[in-house]
Design brief:
The structure is a homotetramer of 196-residue chains. The longest helix of chain A is centred in the middle third of the chain and has 29 residues. Chain A starts with a helix and ends with a helix. Helices cover 79% and strands 0% of the residues of chain A. The C terminus of chain A is likely disordered. Chain A is globular, with a radius of gyration of 18 Å. In chain A, helix 5 packs antiparallel against helix 6. Chain A has ten helices and no strands. Chain A has 196 residues and is mainly alpha-helical. Chains in contact: A-B, A-D, B-C, C-D. Chains A and D meet through helix 1, helix 2 and helix 3 of A and helix 1, helix 4, helix 5 and helix 6 of D. Chains A, B, C, D: Belongs to the TMEM175 family. Chains A, B, C, D: InterPro entries: TMEM175-like (IPR010617). Chains A, B, C, D: It comes from Mucilaginibacter achroorhodeus. Chains A, B, C, D: It catalyses: K(+)(in) = K(+)(out).
């Protein structure tokens, strides 16, 4: 089964998730600079989530680039990932509107963990489908960065009991780690091309 | 006429329907766990509908994969299906906000029945266009699962007069049946490829 | 210049326009059948507009199917059409919420007229680009149906001064005329294929 | 790495940004012509932003048409552009609802400047990737029009301290300059084709 429509549908959902978050930036009723300052936690929360959804789209792009075909199970693993990503606008807004209060910050972390878990299920199913000796399997390696991220989210949730801003800081730090695109696949792919 | 834009447009509508439903998860004004618990019927309703729209996208994907070309009538049958699917966010939200009260639960069932009917009209037009002896016609067979689903929705609506949760349970049960992707087409397609 | 991205972008806008209209179907706060009956003018208005946007997507699909390449001017003519179509959700909701009152009904007609005008500008630019002797030019012919529709919208606006429902009825009648897909292009295309 | 999904994702985001702006055109609760007149600043603001997003889509289309492949950095430069474009609906609505008051008008200008800066970063990365001697580099030239636009936005922000409508007028003037599509690339591309 081809991967064309999986990419098209996922691109659509990614595009909508990343864009509808801006609808939560409720327009203030007055036109002063102070009105904008009141929005700053919501805006900060928006920027963080925009970067996260951008990272997932970027990695998803790289991952499927190395994919040749998909199965029914992979379609559902992809939908499971999109489900958790679809909750990002909700927790983003809740966290922003409550000025990074503890409970929404924890929920944001839980959604990030579930996105990470869903992504690694998708990776594992793709590797299983293409074979452990495939280019894709080599390119993904042991996925240290993915496992590390989920660990940091866990630490962040624990630290939110000290102060929620510690957790928010860690979410931002993980985003920075990932802002560097997944060069593993790029390198392996170009490596294999030059070796031909 | 090619099927490319039909797929692209449908993917767009599917992606939007599945994503705008999350806009109905209204962000609570406070930041306690109890605020989240109050949202649980809306969330449950969202999960059910996400799975249903996912199922339809998945089956639509399989169906059009086995399709070679489309006619004007098929374009309209597809729009008729998308129309009923577009009502899913409305009934989802109504059912969730009213904690699975009887009237919204019945309406949810009616929309599911109409989606099922619209899907089978689309299947029938595609089979008619490709011929009764086509791979597509063989792959769809007698569509027992589709007919059974519409029957169960009818039973669910009847049972909603006893208690609406019986109906909701049956909607969930049908979703579970369909979570197994439509292997009929997959099997036939791969079968015909090996026999060549 | 290829037509691929023009189609992809237009499909996206069509998909969003046709889907966000359902967001205007505000979920009632109670769960009785009577709540649904109060929504009926909004629902009727939604159905009418869904059919109209579906018709435009369908005709746009046929039109670009017969198109080989596009120019900068054609991109802008297409955006001009999408602009007027983007106002359809606004007038749809205004007309529905005010139970087909005169002023919104007139505005709905004006938007329909502008969509029709924008579509015929797009057609004219495409014909000019492909040449008066092209398949596209022959397929479009004198565009009687398009001119007739704009005329009927004008009559409908005039009749809205007698009673707005006359206008609404005429809008519905034009939609019915167009529900029959644009067989002109289909016929010419298949005719030219058989003659080769 | 291919440019297919970059185009598909960007088209999705462009399509959503240009369409959700109409959601801010809140439907008046009454059905008189005067209700429509009250909406006129919001509508004017919508038209301006529709044209701007259309211009960016158009130029993006031309730019990527001349692109052969992309890198991870280019994906992020593109997301940076989409981020600033995603703020357009917010400033559009804020400016419209406050009848072009000074602070929102300044913010609108800042978003336009950032979009211009992000676009030229994207152009520079694409030129660097394709080489200074590439068709793309020649086609973009010194990007006078882009630099001029950012300069005019700066003047507009300064003039908003005299009167905000001066700024709004300049935003409109820049849009008019750009409404003429980017013929530089078109000409160079067709020029190089005829010289082959």
């Amino acid at each position: 089964m081809g991967k064309g429509r999986l990419e098209a549908f996922s691109d659509g959902v990614f595009a909508i998730i990343i864009t509808i978050m801006v609808l939560e930036l409720k327009v203030p009723h007055h036109a002063e600079w102070s009105d904008l300052i009141h929005l700053s936690p919501v805006f900060l929360s928006y920027v963080l989530s925009f970067v996260y959804v951008g990272i997932y789209w970027n990695n998803h792009h790289h991952l499927l680039h190395a994919t040749k075909s998909v199965t029914g199970g992979i379609l559902w693993a992809n939908l499971f990932l999109l489900f958790w990503l679809s909750l990002v606008p909700f927790v983003t807004d809740w966290m922003g509107e409550n000025h990074f209060a503890q409970v929404p910050v924890i929920c944001y972390g839980i959604v990030l963990i579930m996105c990470g878990v869903a992504y690694s299920i998708l990776v594992r199913l793709l590797i299983k489908h293409h074979g452990e000796e495939s280019l894709l399997a080599h390119a993904m390696g042991s996925d240290m960065k993915g496992k590390l991220s989920v660990g940091i989210y866990g630490v962040a949730i624990a630290l939110s009991f000290v102060h929620p801003w510690w957790a928010a800081g860690l979410y931002g730090a993980v985003a920075l780690i990932w802002l560097i695109p997944d060069r593993r696949i790029e390198r392996k792919l170009s490596g294999s091309e030059t070796s031909v």
